[in-house]
Design a protein that fits this description.
This protein is globular. It has helices spanning 49-55, 80-83, 97-100; strands spanning 5-13, 15-19, 24-28, 36-43, 60-66, 71-77, 88-89, 106-107. Helices cover 14% and strands 42% of the residues. Strand 2 and strand 3 (24-28) form a beta hairpin. The longest helix has 7 residues, at 49-55. The protein has a single domain, classed as Hypothetical upf0131 protein ytfp, CATH 3.10.490.10. The chain has a four-stranded antiparallel sheet with strand order 3-2-7-8, with no helix packed on it. The chain has a two-stranded antiparallel sheet with strand order 1-4. It has a two-stranded antiparallel sheet with strand order 5-6. The chain is mainly β and 108 residues long.
Length: 108
Amino acid sequence: MDSADFVGKGYISGYAMYNLGSYPAAVRLPIGTVNKVHGEIYNVPNDLYPVIDQIEGAYEKDFVLVYPQMIVCNVYLMEPKRVAGQFEWIPGGNWTPELQRGSGAVQV
């Protein structure tokens, strides 16, 4: 993201990450489920949101609390029924280059 400023790394709790091949997807888990998804935080200019929304169009946009910074951020989430049994769950919720190459995820 050239127009966005990198803020840092963080995680969201109560979500799972799935490997869709060339990119990951986050999914909201049932309340009380303990699982983290790790990622990067960017300060995005308001005029860039329509572009991102168009790219991420198939996802639900939500606001989440990001730890350890304790800031609220936008996140794009996939519906759980779209990943169930079709994509690999990423234990630990950490997207790595190795996952893009097809190793390190678990078929669920």
